[in-house]
Amino acid sequence: MNNVLTLKRLVCKHCGAELSGLSDSITFQCKTCYRYFIITPEGLKDIAVYTAIGKEQYKKQPLMLPFWLVEVDRKLLRKEIEKSLSELRKLNSSIAKTRLEKNPEDENNILSWNLHTGTEKLHAMANTSSHRSIPGSREIEYLLSTIESFKSFFIYIPAFISRNPFAYLKIGKLLTKKQPSFEIEQSTLPGKPVMCVLQQDEAVELIDFIFFATLPSSILKCGDFLNPISLKVSGSPRLVLFPFQKRTNSLFSLIGEFSVSSSLIVNVT
What we know:
Layout lengths: L18 E3 L5 E4 L5 E5 L2 E4 L2 E5 L9 E9 L2 H24 L20 H11 L8 H13 L4 E5 L7 H13 L4 E4 L13 H5 L2 H7 L3 H4 L2 H4 L11 E10 L2 E4 L5 E3 L8
Parallel strand pairs: 5-9
Antiparallel strand pairs: 1-2, 2-3, 3-4, 5-8, 6-7, 6-9, 9-10, 10-11
Helix pairs in contact: 4-6
């Protein structure tokens, strides 16, 4: 039996009006009741869209770029970091205490050890080749204390389309590292389409990637330490619009105060 492709009009589930959106966007706003919707694999769903409000008033209408704000469970993050440190310290201690004694029956063979099998020999050789790199205790405690000093700790996942995937890393990294102060209000104004191209679950899959990018190189080089660490989400991610101002060939973040090249972002006018 042939599959039949059926095209359906996108209409508001609340008032029946036709939905309008931007090219490539997966979000829509009703022109009549101003509610927002997002297309998911399960179909059209309601979604709350928020606007970030800074302390200063804007002289002219800024460009509003969407981000998924994902709050991190800091208690679980501390536990995972401490567990990873503890296990690496135990491993290094075990490596340091390993004694590979030469077999007295075969003094000419320096690889003849008091180990039961060849597999054990290979395992011991691999483990004793070098210790696992571990970040300094003070550096880790400073990192955790900094994260815990905020009322909440968010990972900022850009949700707009970009010509360069590294734009997601750079902009998300800068906002995540700054953890800027702002308030949010739910957007219910007409004519406010959202340039969102990223699903919520896709955004959550990127939080480790963005978070690790904010870490200093001294921690990033410790791959064995970072490998078992995975951030856990606290609460539901929110889709928030952040204001940017076009300045020559750059976009200046009005919340966070940093600039990025405007060429990284598609549909900037």
